[in-house]
Prior knowledge:
Blueprint: E1 2-7, E2 12-17, H1 22-31, E3 39-42, H2 48-59, E4 63-66, E5 70-74, E6 82-83, H3 85-88, H4 98-105, E7 107-111, H5 124-132, E8 136-140, E9 143-147, E10 155-157, H6 166-176, E11 182-186, H7 192-203, E12 208-209, E13 215-219, E14 227-230, H8 235-248, E15 249-255, H9 263-271, E16 276-278, E17 282-286, E18 295-298, H10 309-316, E19 322-327, H11 335-342, E20 346-350, E21 353-357, E22 366-368, H12 372-384, E23 388-392, H13 395-400, H14 404-410, E24 414-419
Parallel strand pairs: 2-15, 3-14, 6-7, 10-11, 18-19, 22-23
Antiparallel strand pairs: 1-23, 1-24, 3-5, 4-5, 7-9, 8-9, 11-13, 12-13, 15-17, 16-17, 19-21, 20-21
Helix pairs in contact: 1-2, 1-7, 4-6, 5-6, 6-7, 8-10, 8-12, 10-12, 11-12
Bound molecules: ligand EPZ.
Amino acid sequence: MDKLVIRGGTPLSGKVRVSGSKNGALPILFATLLAEDPVVLRNVPRLVDIRTTQRMLQELDVQITDEKDALKFVTPAEGTYTASYQLVRRMRASVSALGPLLARRGRARVSLPGGCAIGQRPIDLHLKGIRALGAEIQIRHGYVEATARQLRGTTIYLSGPFGSTVLGTANVMLAATRAKGVTVIDGAACEPEIVALAQFLRVLGVPIEGEGTHCLRIQGVDRVGGGEFTIPPDRIEAGTYVIAGAMAGGNVAVEACAPGHLRALIDVLQRAEVPLEIGEDFIHVHGTPAIRPVELATLPYPGFPTDLQAQLMALLCRANGVSLITEKVYPDRFMHVAELNRLGAQIRKEGSTAIILGGHRLSGADVMASDLRASACLVLAALIADGETEIHRIYHLDRGYVRMEEKLAGLGADIRREDDEEGV
Ligand code: EPZ
């Protein structure tokens, strides 16, 4: 197991290039199960979660060829329909195999994902949507077992107690591609990752309307074809480097990103009086000694993304005053609070709100990464802490950030990856 060793205090400056979107790529990779002709995907980020998905697809008899700057997928109609616990437990997004397997092979058996560090993550809305299309679903021995001779289009209301569901929307969209007639998903997620999935499905010949709104309309087809598609940039990776620049810049240029997907972050940073220049595909951020405290809540898109909440909290440790963050998507997603406090932050949790008393100096310590975005938050905090910080269990980081230590070192950070001999 590896750890990151970071010596704080070096200002960041220079350019960093954003990779393809992890959360955009994952449902698109599962969508290749539907394709009757070859699919070529470009700008797929080379991450652990992507490799896990490739392995799972291969177990489902998809042939994958790595063509260096692209991945090619060929999927036979017949084949395995079981996604095993061994792979699903590593990555909850695997539940997205359910919709396309059922649509293509008439049958799907997908392990229920296990516990999760960011709180409860039920899949009831996924099942509600797929049942509404006419599937028979049973939960047996830790697996969701679904069958359907012919799925039928219908109108489905998919929003839940915390708003829309991203992967739930993706799963139902994928199942609906081969349903008879039209499916309308009301209360659909409108995240950029869902927009990308809709654009990809259109390339494969599935008529879809309404992506980017809360109402999607999918016309089922008899045959889903193939085609080529480029994965859009990762908005969370981009946002993480923008926050890093705000904390520890310098002058940082985040390039090859989509600023239009980051409006909520840009708004918060402008309220915090962080100097920004925004172009069509770049954001330049200038570090500033004076950050104003802010109040915000995470919300489904276009609200402030929960996947940037932890990183923003690290920034607000530097603000001149008290900031409040309320987590409305995953009310328990605060594992990073205790670790930030170990670095000298002063953060108190009241229910699903974190109260951040800014302006206390951080000092390096040993800390433990608990999930992907919490890990990124600790890396950012370590960049401004006095002395050395060791971040253990960074395998979480490798699930979602392409070569993060190399990208940060390219900006001048004093950061290195080492073998964690203590193995914690
Ligand atoms: C996606 O997860 C992302 N994962 C998450 O990113 C992200 O945090 C989340 O969306 C919210 O933006 C991928 O895209 C692979 P949801 P997803 O269903 O789709 C509740 C990261 O760090 N809910 O939109 O699984 C749920 O508990 C990861 O990259 C139900 O109640 O999230 C939550 O409160 C972590 N029933 C809310 O909806 C359901 O059936 C939103 O979750 C499904 C969800």
